[in-house]
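Researcher: Let's try something more involved. This one mixes different molecule types, so please make sure each is placed in the same coordinate frame as the others.
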Amino acid sequence: MNYKFNWNVVLSGEYLDWIIQGVAVTCQISALSLLFSVIIGTALAVMRLTGFRPFVWFTVAYTEFFRNTPLLVQIFFWYFGSEGLLPRPVMQWLYQWDFEFVAGVIALTVYTSAFIAEEIRSGINSIPKTQLEASRACGLSFVQAMAYVILPQAFRIIIPPLISQSLNLIKNSSLCMTIGVAELTYMARQIESYSFRGFEAFTVSTLIYLFISLLVSFAITQYNKHFMRTVSY
Amino acid sequence: MQWNIVADNFEYLLIGAYPEGPLGGLALTVVMAAISIFGAFWLGLIIGLMRLSKRWWLKWPSFVYIEIIRGIPLLMLILWVYFLFPVVMGKAMPENDSVIIAFVVFTAAYIAEIVRAGVLALPSGQMEASRATGLSKFQAMKYVILPQALRNMIPSFVNQFVSLTKDTSLAYIIGVAELTRAATQVNNRTLSAPMEIYLTILVMYFIICYVLTSFSRRLERKMARYQARG
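Model: All components are placed in one shared frame. Result:
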């Protein structure tokens, strides 16, 4: 192998700025998508547990469809194909923003929320049924019982799987480079094609992903060690 | 709505330019997934068993491998193999091969963890009893532990196959003519029905993956009955 490493090129000046920007965009798109995914995932899980047939069918169809299709194609679908789906004024409003970013957030949210809904549902199911019955007997409505009794307990249990889902989300956000979202992987490729310093650029971005993921798995282990003892039924 | 564009190009989405040119489309997607899962199974089995070993020089390399591969996005790995492997080896590799290598390397890390979990889930009495009857550790693994453990792991392997089938769409990035690429080509050529085209291939992926997932769910219920208990 006769490749001369030159780390200075990537780790200084404009290219370093690109990498930092890439990390920032990766973090932004992941954080936004995670926030929306948890909200939608919770809503889906609760809808399914109401037992109301149309709700159940909708949530089952939603999770099965989005879990069994590739994220990349979903990203293309939202980015290229959403024009025909939404009314014109809404699209025009969306185009005002950075539409690549918006489409990326939509795709990641829809995809991830399908997985998170299943995690949350199993979390809720692991809370004894009597809890819900007792809360209803105390006079709380279904929504109140969920909000004040069941969900706070369920969330404590599902934090570890939720964290590993968010790690998947961070890794999945790399696919948004295909529609031109300037996140970390996009920046690495950009540096590669501008400076032919592919090795350095890919190494740096790989290490950044690796650092994030090791941090996250460390967090899960710590959480399990200290807090899981307090959750027991 | 312009479904006729999809209808006109449906054959291209299914098999690419096949009889005249190379195989593509959905057929290539399935072939690539099948080859990759086969390779990943053997590599993952070896790495999973290494991870279970008590010898540090077997255990640590596999541990590092698993942690690194699971920590980076598959897309990153594909780019590594495609752009940087030639720099090291001095010659380029066909897209199809390099992407299959990336899939095997990536999926093997996940399969290794499945193997590890499957072996650890067997009651320890199985190993002790086989050792007591005079089998070596290797023999016990081969004749007693693995046949039982692998059977219990089949549903997880099927799930891994499903995610691999979905992941083959990433081969698009480096220009492999699988389903996603074929759809993008059709879209670029026609330019008027992106929603219809992408919806069609979403449904195609969905049918394959959903059939496999329901199959694995059925297997999981069946396997539960045969599990050895400690």
